[in-house]
Amino acid sequence: MESASCRRLEEIMKIAVCVKHVPISENVEVDENNRLVRDNAESDTNPCDLNAMETALRLKQEAGGTIDVYSMGPENAMASLKKCLAMGADQAYLISGRKFAGGDTLGTARVLAEAIQKQGEYDVVFTGSESSDGGTGQVGPMLAELLHMPDVSETVEVKAGNGLLNVKKRVDGGNLLLSVKMPVLLTVPFGCNEPTLPTLRTQRKANRAEIPVVGEDDLDLSAETIGEKGALSIVTGLEAASGGNSAEKISGSDDEIAAKLYELLEEGRNR
User: Fold this and answer.
1) Could you say which of 124, 227, 256, 270 has the lowest number of CB atoms within 10 Å?
2) Could you tell me which residue, 258 or 268, shows the higher pLDDT?
3) Check: CATH 3.40.50.720 for 4-230?
4) Element of type H or E holding 169
5) Per-residue confidence (pLDDT) for residue 37, from 0 to 100
């Protein structure tokens, strides 16, 4: 089989983006197994996945190539895939099936990896840094391991150059500049760019697109490794947060602000 590095020198770049359709309402139901009921919940595309999509689009505009988008979830995840098509993706795949339900982050990564590998080799795979409904930040690095790729987390910018990718990685106090070989997986944090807004024309075209559905029978995965059966971590309960953070605006003269800050610090010491 021709390697991704050899193909990259001769053909256009192949890019994959993984996106998640997440609940956006505060009134999300939970079933008897402590799982989110996603089918009828008000949902939208995970915010930092849109930043990942935008980063992929900018790389495509600079270096050429194609973008395939993948989403694992129920049928309503089609909306996120069509949004990505309207933004500029070339192809989309919905990965959906009852046997995938109840899986943990490793099960999700296994399913995504198998679906991606079914479509061939990719030069770059993008994911958001984390999902707004889970917030673990685990799927991207796990997916990289299963695809046998290195990964760079907190990627805020990517440029192509001389067969490499010049990556700007966010770190405490600034950015780390890296040159990385492909294939590689890059996770992108929320807010690092401004996602492209689809036009009415591109959204209408995306709405008419036929998106293939990849089911359990299309993937070479044992039922023991996916979904609830394959989960190594299980949510056993939910608890409301106690306390919580609050904010207070302090105004006035410099002396008044200093006095108020001193008062708040003293209150904190006495708690």
Assistant:
1) 270
2) 258
3) no
4) strand 164-171
5) 60
